[in-house]
What we know:
Layout: H1 5-14, H2 26-36, H3 42-56, E1 61-65, E2 73-77, H4 78-85, H5 89-102, E3 106-110, H6 116-124, E4 129-134, H7 137-150, E5 155-159, H8 162-173, E6 176-181, H9 187-197, E7 201-210, H10 216-226, E8 233-236, E9 240-244, E10 252-255
Parallel strand pairs: 3-4, 3-6, 4-5, 6-7, 8-10
Antiparallel strand pairs: 1-2, 7-9, 8-9
Amino acid sequence: MKYGAKAYLKYKLFSRHACGHGIHSPFVYELITKVFRAKGNKKDIELAGAIYRVMISDKRIIKRMAMGVNGKAEEIKAGTFVRRSSVTPGYGKLLYNLVNFYKPSTILELGTAAGISSVYMALGNPMAKLVTIEGCRETATIAQENFNRTGIRNGTVVNATFDEVLPLVFFDLRSIDLAFFDGNHSYDATLSYFGRCLPYANDKSVFIFDDIHWSEEMEKAWEEIKSSEKVTLSVDLFRMGIVFFRSGIEKQHFVIRY
Length: 258
């Protein structure tokens, strides 16, 4: 755990409802039983999992240009980079299930890396339009390779910084039905990207934030995000945080084991 045992222990102590028992919110009960516990399409899950396994065994050396908190260039094995930065198959399946259940028409991902999370989400709803942003040229190229391997046609990899693209991308997307934030893990950047995407959210939008307990800064950002006036419900899964904007739902925060 990147932030340490203290944050994880707190999560374990306060998390509950792993199976949905005792949940008084019909919306969250449905989320647990039909999304978190869903098996997904076996063929899709196996395909995305195969891409992950291929990538973690990739021994080629890439020059990774980090755009986030520790922004610097480094030479690293592709497989090592994927192990360190990409979603695991368990959380990839979560992203797949979220997309598969809520059927967003538009998906925005900030932080493509090798495209593992992108593959899971694109497969979750082949009718959705997915735009994923990656600042590093070499990893953006790898992500496109993985799109080609899986035959994905509903995803577009954009090699640019978030600041370059965010003012422009919405001319095409117009609204964001689902967003996955997995880039610059700093307080200021996370809140800035959330604020710039918020006007494009709608009543059924789902925003997902990776590594919400990665650091004190990320925990602080997560607290402010879930307290936003527009957020009506939030779910803390330790690694990821999910917020919803549904009207007619009492504002609540849940900490759930996944």
